[in-house]
Amino acid sequence: MSGLAIETCGLTYHFGNQKVVDNLSLKVEKGSIYGFLGPNGAGKTTTIKILLNLLKSPADSVFIFGKDISTNRIASLKRMGALVEQPAIYAHLSGKENLYNRCILLGTPRSRAAEMLALVGLTEAADKKAGKYSLGMKQRLGIALALLGDPELLLLDEPTNGLDPNGIIEIRNLMIELTSKHNKTILVSSHLLAEIERIATHVGIINKGQLLFQGTINELQTLNKPVVEIETDAIEATLGILAAEGYTPEQIKTGTIQIPYTSKAETGRINTVLVQGGNTISSIHLVRKDLEHLFLDITKPN
Ligand SMILES: Nc1ncnc2c1ncn2[C@@H]1O[C@H](COP(=O)(O)OP(=O)(O)OP(=O)(O)O)[C@@H](O)[C@H]1O
Predict the structure, then answer these.
(1) Coil, strand or helix: which one is 264?
(2) Distances (CA, A) of 114 to 60, 90, 92, 147, 282
(3) Cβ neighbours for 240, distance < 8 A, ≥ 6 positions apart
(4) Does 3.40.50.300 match the CATH number of domain 4-215?
(5) Ligand 1 center to residue 58 CA distance, Å?
(6) Residues 128-176: pLDDT tens digits?
(7) 241 in ligand 1 pocket by Cβ < 6 Å?
């Protein structure tokens, strides 16, 4: 990876009196899958619209591949493809016809339509009316439309929202293929930490318009250390054994203790020690923090 596909400096946006994006400085490396993570209403869609120059404020400072979008609007937009909210699809036209229409608008050869249908796995459904597509197929058609002009950078706003598990896996695999085989850079927004952790190389976490964390997936995982959760009625005895084993157990609620996770083998060993100590363990399992708890950790003063 070299250079930045997106850089913003102090991005700020208001809807009336509400500050929706607050001093946001994003850095998206070329070739990365940048997971743009935040709860509903955090300001993700608004930020993506600013990146696409669909919304503007006087404080905007957006660089696409190193060029200021305000002075290089057309050239910058040509290098970007986007899927924001619902894909703009004509329901009465087939998938292929939807792509042909866009080819005419872009002045792209029609042959590109078949290529894009193949890339997103819609070749067999090419002649079916897009209105009859499943939600996942519509999202994939939306991505095919965004890819028609061969942009280097894709902005995908919650592309897996509302999809069933299969649909989610298909979109996930498509994003991985687009970066690994087709050299795209992807910024993908989501409100689901687990979803982003599976595919992203880099992550930006936003809440109430502010960037709380930005870094590589490894840096996020260092922050988001998993724990082993143990459920037992014999709390005192279990705490005693774990402390004797060198752990710093934490009782998080009645009957539930957490210790830092190290490995599967170590979790098994702890289970054996506890059971051999005469304790009934009703559950022992790995737990990862959800977004809400991660926010608490990030914002907690050191
Ligand atoms: N056109 C608008 N007019 C007024 N307020 C708006 C408008 N669009 C968004 N907002 C408000 O701006 C805030 C951020 O919205 P935004 O859609 O950017 O968040 P988001 O992180 O994308 O959330 P979601 O996942 O729910 O789409 C919300 O409080 C929302 O109500």
Answers:
(1) helix
(2) 38, 18, 19, 12, 55
(3) none
(4) yes
(5) 19
(6) 999 999 988 999 999 999 999 899 999 999 998 888 888 889 889 989 9
(7) no
Q: Please choose from 15, 84, 157, 206 the residue to mutate so as to test ligand 1's pocket, defined by most ligand atoms within 8 A of CB.
A: 15
Is 209 near ligand 1, meaning CB less than 6 Å away? no
User: 42 CB less than 6 Å from ligand 1?
Assistant: yes
Residues 6 or more apart whose CB falls under 8 angstroms from that of 59 comprise 10, 11, 12, 13
Looking from the CA of residue 38, the nearest atom of ligand 1 is 21
Cβ of 45 closer than 6 Å to ligand 1, yes or no, is yes
Which residue spans of the chain are classified as CATH 3.30.70?
Answer: 227-299
Tokens of 222: 């260092």
* Chain region(s) in the chain for CATH 3.40.50.300: 4-215
Which CATH number is correct for 227-299, 3.30.70, 3.30.310, 3.40.50, 3.10.290?
3.30.70
Q: Establish whether this prediction's ipTM goes over 0.90.
A: yes
Radius of gyration of the chain (CA): 23
Q: Is the CB of 41 under 6 A from ligand 1?
A: yes
8 vs 64, 71, 203, CA distance in Å? 9, 14, 15
44 alpha carbon to ligand 1 midpoint, in Å?
8
